[in-house]
C-alpha cells in the first residue's frame, strides 16, 4: 500500500504512528510485551547484547515469583536471565534480587554508580543503549516480521523520548506572566496550554519558560527572561478544559 492510500489513525486527538502506540500511552507492561515478542523473534541478537550465555530456549512475560513478578525471563541452555524494565529513572536493583536467576539486567533510564552495580550484581542498560543499537540492526533483518516489529517499537520509543534520534532537540518556549502559571510550573512542575492538533509540542524535548515583567515585579527572585531550560518529561491532552494540555 502506498502512503497516499493510508489515512491517519487518531487516539484521542493525537495521530498514532505505530502499532504499539495504537494500544495507548507509554506503559511498562505494554513496552515489555513487545520487547519480549521481539526477543523471541531474534533471541541470538539480544542474548549477545544482554550478556547472557548459551543457546536460547524460551522467553516468558510477567512471570510470578514468590515475592513479586518479573517482566521478562529468557531461559538458555546455560541458565536464566531476568530483565526488569522501568520507563522512568527508577532503580529496580533491590527488586530484581528477589528473583532467582543466573543473570540480571535492569532496563532503566537510571544511571547507576559503579558501587550500586557491584552491590546489586546486575547489569544496568538504558533503553537507548539496548534498542538504539540492537533494534536498529534488527530493523534491517532479513525476516520481514522482525523488521516490522523492530522498526515499530523503535518508532514508538522515539516518540516518547526513550531513545535518541538524529533530529535536533527542540525547545518549546512560552511566556509565564501570571501567578497561576508560575505556581504550577515552580511548585508542581506543570505547564498548561491550548492543544493544537498536528502541532509540534509532542515532538519537543525541552521547555523554556520566559518570565514576563509583570510576574517579575510581583515575585522577588524572579527576573525577566529565560533563566533555564527544563526537560519535558510527559505530555497529556485533555482533562481540564476543552483543548487544554498539561505537561511536565
Q: In terms of per-residue confidence, which ranges show pLDDT below 50 for 5 or more consecutive residues?
A: 239-244
Amino- and carboxy-terminal Cα gap: 38 Å
What is the 3D form? globular
CATH class of the largest domain: Alpha Beta
Largest sheet: 5 strands, mixed
* Total helical segments: 8
Task: Report the strand count.
Answer: 14
The CATH architecture of the largest domain is: 3-Layer(aba) Sandwich
The CATH topology of the largest domain is Trna Endonuclease, Chain: A, domain 1
Question: What is the helix fraction of residues, given as a range?
Answer: 25-40%
Mean pLDDT: 80
Could you tell me the strand content as a percent range?
25-35%
Strand order of the largest sheet: 3-4-5-6-7
Radius of gyration: 21 Å
Structural class: alpha+beta
Report the order of strands and helices. EEHHEEEHEHEHHEHEEHEEEE
Tally of separate domains? 2
Description:
This protein has helices at 28-41, 43-50, 93-96, 114-120, 127-138, 144-159, 179-188, 213-218; strands spanning 9-11, 14-16, 56-65, 68-76, 79-85, 103-107, 123-125, 171-176, 191-194, 206-211, 225-226, 230-231, 235-237, 244-247. With 248 residues, the protein is an alpha+beta fold. It folds into 2 domains: 3-159, 3-Layer(aba) Sandwich (Trna Endonuclease, Chain: A, domain 1), CATH 3.40.1350; 171-247, no CATH class. The strands form 4 sheets. It has a 5-stranded mixed sheet with strand order 3-4-5-6-7. Strands 8, 10, 11 and 12 form a 4-stranded mixed sheet that branches. It has a 3-stranded antiparallel sheet with strand order 9-14-13. The chain is globular.
Amino acid at each position: 500500500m502506498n502512503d497516499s492510500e493510508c489515512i491517519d489513525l487518531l487516539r484521542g486527538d493525537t495521530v498514532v504512528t505505530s502499532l504499539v502506540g495504537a494500544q495507548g500511552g507509554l506503559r511498562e507492561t505494554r513496552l515489555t510485551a513487545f520487547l519480549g515478542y521481539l526477543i523471541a523473534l531474534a533471541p541470538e541478537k539480544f542474548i549477545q547484547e544482554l550478556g547472557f550465555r548459551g543457546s536460547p530456549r524460551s522467553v516468558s512475560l510477567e512471570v510470578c515469583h514468590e515475592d513479586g513478578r518479573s517482566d521478562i525471563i529468557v531461559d538458555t541452555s546455560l541458565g536464566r536471565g531476568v530483565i526488569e524494565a522501568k520507563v522512568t529513572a527508577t532503580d529496580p536493583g533491590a527488586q530484581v534480587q528477589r528473583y532467582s536467576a543466573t543473570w540480571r539486567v535492569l532496563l532503566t533510564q537510571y544511571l547507576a554508580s559503579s558501587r550500586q552495580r557491584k552491590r546489586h550484581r546486575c547489569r544496568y542498560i538504558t533503553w537507548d543503549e539496548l534498542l538504539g543499537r540492537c533494534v536498529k540492526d534488527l530493523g534491517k533483518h532479513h525476516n520481514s516480521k522482525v523488521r516490522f516489529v523492530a522498526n515499530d517499537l523503535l518508532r514508538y520509543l522515539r516518540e516518547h523520548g526513550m531513545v535518541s534520534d538524529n533530529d535536533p532537540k527542540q525547545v518549546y518556549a512560552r511566556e509565564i506572566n501570571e501567578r497561576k502559571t508560575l505556581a504550577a510550573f515552580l511548585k508542581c512542575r506543570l505547564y498548561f496550554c491550548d492543544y493544537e492538533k498536528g502541532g509540534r509540542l509532542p515532538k519537543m524535548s525541552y521547555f523554556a519558560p520566559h518570565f514576563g515583567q509583570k510576574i517579575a515585579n510581583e515575585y522577588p527572585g524572579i527576573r525577566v527572561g529565560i533563566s533555564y531550560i527544563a526537560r519535558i518529561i510527559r505530555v497529556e491532552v485533555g482533562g481540564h478544559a476543552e483543548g487544554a494540555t498539561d505537561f511536565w
